[in-house]
Write a structure and sequence with these properties.
- With 243 residues, the chain is mostly helical.
- It is globular and about 55 Å long.
- The protein is 74% helix and 0% strand.
């Protein structure tokens, strides 16, 4: 089966995203408010679907930007982080009394935090996609695996397995959408083949990708820890980030 065709796994995953969104919306409306569902609805059901519907125009637009591909990828990936953190900040601000100045502060705090936190992920993808071949599906799901680790979601597998399995589809979809510029610029079939890129089996490519992104992220983990310890007001309040 061609890599860009929809597989049974993709259909099951799409259904799991729908079920998870429906569950958390129901939970928030009738049991206990959870503001994070606002972010997931906007980002997944809003921007995710928009990116998919407009994918042909977006790919054309991205390719027409007159910059080297690696610079375009860096700009687009950091840009998409800045965009999605607007909605992350908004959904978290719903836990506070509404204040426009506070909302603007939260947006800047979330953007600053995640520009640092995502750098290993972003630089890793730019380097890896230049050296190795990936299918759109590989970029999407590998990004989702990274999200499960970076959001510390894996820790709830044994402590709260129901919540774990209801959050996994949303985190995977969120990070897969964030990685859209890589999919658009490095995996589209209309692109000229990069003869210099290496083809590896998935059993090698998966741990290699995760491992390199992990190593590249370590310095930024220490930077984040230092800022939290010394200038915490540059970041959102710790309870917004699970600290």
């Amino acid at each position: 089966m061609k890599s860009r065709s929809i597989t049974s796994f993709d259909l099951i995953f799409g259904l799991s995203v729908f079920v998870s969104l429906f569950f958390w919306i129901f939970y928030s409306l009738f049991l206990e408010p959870v503001t994070f569902i606002v972010y997931f609805v906007i980002w997944i059901a809003g921007f995710g679907i928009l990116f998919y519907i407009k994918r042909a125009k977006l790919i054309t637009f991205f390719r027409q930007i007159n910059l080297p591909t690696w610079i375009k990828l860096l700009c687009l990936l950091y840009g998409i982080i800045l965009l999605e953190e607007v909605f992350a900040a908004f959904s978290n601000h719903l836990l506070e009394p509404f204040s426009f100045p506070t909302l603007m502060l939260r947006i800047l705090q979330f953007q600053f935090f995640n520009i640092i936190a995502f750098t290993g992920f972003i630089v890793g993808w730019v380097i890896l996609s230049h050296r190795l071949t990936y299918t759109p599906r590989e970029v999407f799901y590998l990004s989702g695996l990274w999200g499960i680790w970076s959001e510390n979601l894996w820790k709830s597998l044994f402590s709260d397995p129901v919540a774990f399995f209801l959050m996994v589809p949303l985190i995977v979809a969120t990070y897969g959408i964030i990685a859209y510029p890589i999919i658009a610029l490095k995996t589209h079939p209309q692109l000229d083949l990069d003869d210099h890129r290496i083809k590896l089996t998935r059993w090698i490519k998966i741990p290699l990708t995760i491992g390199i992104q992990f190593l590249l992220s370590l310095p930024f983990v220490f930077i984040i820890q230092w800022i939290f310890a010394n200038v915490p007001n540059l970041f959102p309040p710790g309870h917004f980030l699970g600290h």
